[in-house]
Give the backbone structure.
Amino acid sequence: MKDHCKRVRQQMWRLLFIGLLLASFIAGTGERGYAIPAFARKYGLPCSACHIGWPILNNFGLAFKDNGYQLGNDKDSPIYQNPSYWPITFRVTPQWHLENTNKVGIDAPGTTTPSSEQSITTHGFDLSGLDIWTAGTLYKNISFSVLPSMGEGSTFHFENAWVRFDNLLNSPWLNFKFGKFELDNLLSEKRFLTLSSVGGIWYNYHFTPQGDSNGFGGIGDNQLGIELSGHNSNSYSRYSIALLSSVDGAPGLTSAGQGGTARTYDAYVNVNQGFPVKGLGVQRIGAYAYVGRSPTYFLTSGGAPVEAKGGKSFSRVGAFGWWFIKNLDVETFYMHGQDNAFLGNGVPSNRPDLLPTGAAGPTWNGGFVEAHYTVNPQLIFTGRYELVHMSRQANPSNLPNLGNVDSFTIGYRWYPIMLSRAGLAFHNEYAQAKMGNLAPLTQTDALNRAVMIGFDFDY
Amino acid sequence: MPDGVHASYTKIKIFTVPNMKLNWNHWLASLALAALLTAPVWSQESHVGNLIGHAAQGKKEYRRYCVGCHGPLGDGNGENAPWIDPKPRDFVAATFKCRSTPTGTLPTDQDLYNSVSRGFTNSNMPHWDSLPPQNRIDLVAYIKTFSPRWQSEKAGEVIKVPPEPAVTSQSIAHGAELFQKMECWKCHGQQGRGDGPSAATLTDSKDQPIRPYNFADATSDSRFKCGVTNEDLYRIFMTGLDGTPMPSFADVIQPNDAWDLVHYLRTLQTKRHSKENDVVKGTGGKTSASAPGS
């Protein structure tokens, strides 16, 4: 009995010791809360000043961005910077990841025709693409951003490239942006925490129904056009209106994948309002709408598309909220989408006879709830549940759930290095997504899973 | 066994927790002492209107937003401090430029709150009004933990600002005379460009070079370090900017004279639309030109 008591006491001491070690680890990560790539180098601010957890912007970071990457403290113009200052940030993520899909069509031996479904798992060490981001001010109240991005062995593309004239008429309510840019989504997919192949997108931001020919890739895609935006002094009240070429951000007047053919425009509107709640933080709500047209066929010359024709309408509208309860913040998002029947069935508008009987414009509803718990600026946990459910299929013969998405993602990021010249995040993530009726043979639900462990760093 | 190995083994034994003998009295005494030492820090509060700031919460905000410049000890020696000009505020010294209280005294919580919210033009300190008010008042409470002065002293009495008299050509002309008489020009220059004969020699209380305010550089959105209004400018005369060569004139200038000086200084901001400049235009510019050297 005495020995038993002693063992229990020893066990308790060990648990206490381990607990203290863990506690000191967590507390220790809070001792130094800085990290500074391009902007932070310029202003000498810790990265945690602008980010809840890099790369999610907090209120201060949002105000800085809205103000044209200016703090308004007369140090904004590059003329005040040391000539050696170069506003550039590199970001890359070496990683180990595992990918699993539970129902992949496997070809019969010697053929290219799937004859069975199997669970496929691949894994190994890998690299993300490389972002080389430069942004800042050309002069007081003229800001810019250029972000060439490339994958291993592939050519680069411009993720964004724009110039913005800020505080026109000396008013924060008038800012004019020109170029390729991220839509003014308060809940920014470019700045969220998850990176895996399954959890690295918000499905609502990129959803297209099965069989749909709409060239619009979703509000998560950067677009080419102009934007008028504004905000009050602390960026609690914000609006933006954008006129965009119907090219889904592809240069070369590329409509629905065909270069040199674009001739229509889309529009995007986003309004949101923040209000501080004592003891909790700044709560934000907003609404958005994207309306546009996408071609259904092309005029050709010698077989080559020369002009997009038969533009048909589509829309993505919804509302969102961002709720703060001290260190916990929760993003909520709702979207209703609809495409024209010709787009939904992939039928040229000059061939209505090809529409299936009972064809209709596909509609769907989706949303997500994503939570972040910030233990301290160097340790943040995240979890998300997201769904997109079809409410009407374009072709009535489709299974009702075809293309539905049900996904969840969990993970955390620990930032052991947040020094004044660089940031390093240890990233762990698990994500899975059930895709409705997409198994190639059985037409049952398919499940994609991903595990990612990596180091996300920028300098 | 070599000594070194034996020593290492001994060190490991120290962490064999179950064998440790606890002296509970010693532990309790240590805890009590720690509580006593930290009590003033964590009980530190700040008050602005209905807001009550708490240092414990402010410490988290400080680490997130401020530590890079002001440093973990609040002494202005953050990791970015070497590259910042002017240097970040040293909260340990508890010497603050922007106050509503007499020179040499501590500022009010409202003063600190205003400074955090407004930021400081011509410095790296941004305006933090995008933070919720509670965060800002918490920061004020934490800033006050860095210096023992806050334990032994109270904030000074708030200086009263009398109503601003009407702007007239006479008040501007009188202000111009005072500008000469009080030798403001020695630092700020005859045109208010911050290029007076003493300007190059000025240092702050940390022996860092400091530049006088350049009124003439002001554009339409110009701000003074401690505010944008005429009342803010008046207050600067009366409180001085502690830690800088700008003294308090509370004992040597009458309120009406101070207002006249405010009116004159506004005319030095030639690019800024103001009632003072309107009056100058109305007189054909003669009022402003009455200052020697203009």
About this structure: The two ends of chain A are 60 Å apart (CA to CA).
